[in-house]
Amino acid sequence: MLKKQNLLGLTQSKFKEFFSDLNEKPYRTKQIMQWIYHQGINDFDDMHNFSKDLRQKLNAIASLELPEVISMSNSRDGVIKWIIKLGEENNIETVYIPQKDRGTLCISSQVGCSLACTFCSTGYQGFNRNLATHEIIGQVLIAQNHLSEENMRISNVVFMGMGEPLLNESPVYDACEIFLDDWAFGLSRRRVTVSSSGIVPALMRMSDKVPVSLAISLHAPNDKLRDILVPINKKYPIKELMKACHYYLNAGTQERHILFEYVMLEDVNDSLENAKSLSKLLNFWFEQESAKVNLIPFNPFPETQYKTSKNTTIQKFQDVLHRSGIRTTTRRTRGDDVDAACGQLAGKVLDKSRRHAGRN
Ligand code: SAH
Ligand code: SF4
């Protein structure tokens, strides 16, 4: 039997092509997107302004299927974590973080990650496959369906779950387009963030193509240390990355900023020397308003040797950055009692990279 096309992955322009192939009028696109994204309808038979004939056609060739939810857990501090099944032995995780003035959904872009950053649980799991656009969008719809029942809403979407979004470009860019589309989620570009460990050529492409916010996982102020923590640095060292960041800042018509993420690992990258080198690096490359630092207390996971920096160390590190004029915040750890904190997302990955073949 012909596999039905999942329409959740279609951007506005792809929907237009889809309906044109069916000899339907272009206005069907707005109608169907509003049914799906504004009314939460996922059954073609409930789309009353579609003719019976069109509904039958859609039922025969297309679907609006969401991935299967394996579990949903609520942490003490209001964080919600979904484990979502994407085929045999492959689960991903999606996390909702409620804050006073917003609700952030942290979504995954890959099953696992091939980049093996040494402090990251996802990296430790190895890599299986990229997500399709409908699987990325599916995470947001699953969360939205649940949250709307509780009168909560998603105001921000961040690609900070499992995977490296810039190693899965087309599906991630299409998903971003759907997040920004007023006929779909209608989020502003400031509220959609791609977080990347710095895949330089992809970052340049993204800069031109998708007007979303950018977070860069820096984690070290020099190549020697970054080569160890973020091994992709050997391919795209800091200087190349900084040039690509500049490219991002100057592309597009609106004002742009970059958030630099820096995980705080005790006695590894948290010395005052490290803080001074980081300020020097960022002040050399960026105007004050365009770069911001977010210090992330390390979230431990079973296989790790690293420890979280002490609060006093983080505070001193932050002071050095502040004194040099760099806006710096420290991320509060949320959801760690259900393993939903940054970098604790392990999902379940049938590792195809066989990174741990010797160990398992
Ligand atoms: N691959 C992308 C996005 C997913 S990781 C990236 O690396 O940016 C999202 C963020 O969580 C990144 O900044 C990452 O460095 C951070 N992170 C990973 N493991 C962590 C851990 N154990 N504790 C705290 N932050 C972690
Ligand atoms: Fe992959 Fe990001 Fe984890 Fe590095 S930190 S292994 S890039 S998910």
Report the biggest beta sheet as strand number plus sense, adding barrel if it closes. Answer: 10 strands, mixed
> What is the CATH topology classification name of the largest domain?
TIM Barrel
Overall mean confidence score, pLDDT: 92
Helix content: 25-40%
- The largest sheet has its strands arranged as 3-4-5-6-9-10-11-12-13-14
Number of helices: 11
Name the CATH superfamily assignment of the largest domain: Aldolase class I
What does this structure look like?
It is built from 11 helices and 14 strands. By secondary structure, it is α/β, with parallel strands linked by helices. The chain has 2 domains: 59 residues, DNA polymerase, domain 1 (Orthogonal Bundle), CATH 1.10.150; 271 residues, TIM Barrel (Alpha-Beta Barrel). Strand 10, helix 7 and strand 11 form a beta-alpha-beta unit. Helix 5 runs parallel beside helix 6 and helix 7 packs parallel to helix 9. It is globular. It starts with a strand and ends in a 30-residue tail after the last strand.
Walk me through the topology.
Layout: E1 5-6, H1 12-21, H2 27-38, H3 52-61, E2 62-63, E3 68-74, E4 80-85, E5 91-98, E6 103-106, E7 110-112, H4 121-125, E8 127-130, H5 133-149, E9 156-159, H6 169-180, E10 192-196, H7 200-209, E11 213-217, H8 223-229, H9 238-250, E12 258-264, H10 272-285, E13 291-297, H11 311-323, E14 327-330
Parallel strand pairs: 1-2, 6-9, 9-10, 10-11, 11-12, 12-13, 13-14
Antiparallel strand pairs: 3-4, 4-5, 5-6, 7-8
Helix pairs in contact: 1-2, 5-6, 7-9, 10-11
Bound molecules: S-adenosyl-L-homocysteine (SAH) and iron/sulfur cluster.
